[in-house]
Design goal:
By secondary structure, the chain is of the alpha/beta class. It has helices at residues 7-11, 17-29, 57-67, 86-99, 113-121, 127-130, 143-151, 172-184, 226-232, 242-245, 250-270, and strands at 33-36, 41-43, 49-52, 73-76, 102-109, 133-136, 156-160, 189-193, 204-207, 215-216, 222-223, 237-240. It is 41% helix and 18% strand. Bound molecules: 5-fluoro-uridine-5'-monophosphate. Keywords: Decarboxylase, Glycosyltransferase, Lyase, Multifunctional enzyme, Pyrimidine biosynthesis, Transferase.
């Protein structure tokens, strides 16, 4: 299913303007790397937290600054930040402009449209004000997508078509359904969370669960290396969390991953 088109050629196929802006950033920075600002928690033997990471705004912003020059996207989980205020989103947007990356809030909307609209615009996070990209499960039907596109016209939407975790249910017919939904809402939806290309070059494919060493974690995450994901499975953007976040030198790790991911894309073009 992997198609042979370059990012330059895809520019004219993507209908959503955030998708096209992302492609322009990717080409300019030669980066198809997204960093996930994820938390990791280490428990001791009696289940007390020994160490936590990326749960403060200071840590989130410092990661954005460290990896910013290497990435096309910073993927956030705003609801793991313990001291979130509006000024955090303002500072994030400032860093995104400074380093030329887009902000993807990985909220994974999954409810009926009416609720999703409130979750997107309200609460204490006001996601629609600062996120360039948001994502949604298709489990509740197209109302979720309609709500997102109606109340955040400037946001691009990604649908979850496949997942990286063990035993997940986003397979076969479900994946096909996600593709159909995206094709129906092509002005708003510009891509998928998937394990690779699922067939249509008019969309971009974003793959989490990427680590140079492969492996997994103790809660079902399954890692694939950048070359397999991008050159063989046909994904466009690799999403890397702990592979970079847990490194003692995040700048260097981000640079290594950026090169590995871009080389894998160039390799795909040659085949
Ligand atoms: F939709 C998905 C998925 O199928 N797998 C994921 O891992 C999302 N993710 C996210 O990607 C997850 O919530 C993390 O933010 C990130 C992976 O982080 P890791 O530290 O590289 O495992």
């Amino acid at each position: 299913k992997v198609h042979p088109l370059s990012f330059e050629q895809r520019l004219s196929l993507i209908r959503n303007k955030v998708g096209r802006r992302l492609l322009e950033i990717m080409l300019k920075k030669q980066s198809n790397l997204a960093v996930a600002a994820v938390s990791f928690v280490i428990f001791n033997s009696i289940n007390l937290i020994l160490y936590e990471d990326v749960t403060t705004s200071e840590e989130l912003l410092s990661i954005a600054n460290e990896v910013g020059p290497q990435i096309c996207i910073l993927k956030t989980h705003m609801d793991i930040i313990q001291d979130w205020t509006e000024s955090v989103s303002e500072k994030l947007v400032h860093l995104a402009k400074l380093h030329h990356f887009l902000i993807f809030e990985d909220r994974k909307f999954a409810d009926i449209g009416n609720t999703v609209e409130l979750q997107l615009t309200g609460g204490i996070f006001h996601i629609a004000q600062w996120a360039d990209i948001v994502n949604a499960h298709i489990i509740a039907g197209p109302g979720t997508i309609q709500a997102l596109s109606r109340s955040a016209e400037h946001c691009g939407i990604l649908l979850l078509a496949q997942m990286s975790s063990k035993g997940n249910l986003a397979v076969q017919e479900y994946t096909q359904k996600a593709l159909e939904f995206a094709q129906q809402y092509e002005d708003a939806v510009f891509g998928f969370i998937s394990l690779g290309c699922i067939g249509d070059p008019n969309f971009l494919y974003f793959t989490p669960g990427v680590k140079l060493e492969g492996g997994g974690d103790s809660l079902g995450q399954q890692y694939t290396d950048p070359k397999t994901v991008i050159a063989i499975q046909g994904s466009d953007v690799a999403i890397v969390g702990r592979g970079i976040i847990q490194s003692s030198n995040r700048r260097e790790a981000a640079s290594t991953y950026r090169k590995a991911c871009w080389d894998a894309y160039l390799q795909r073009l040659e085949e």
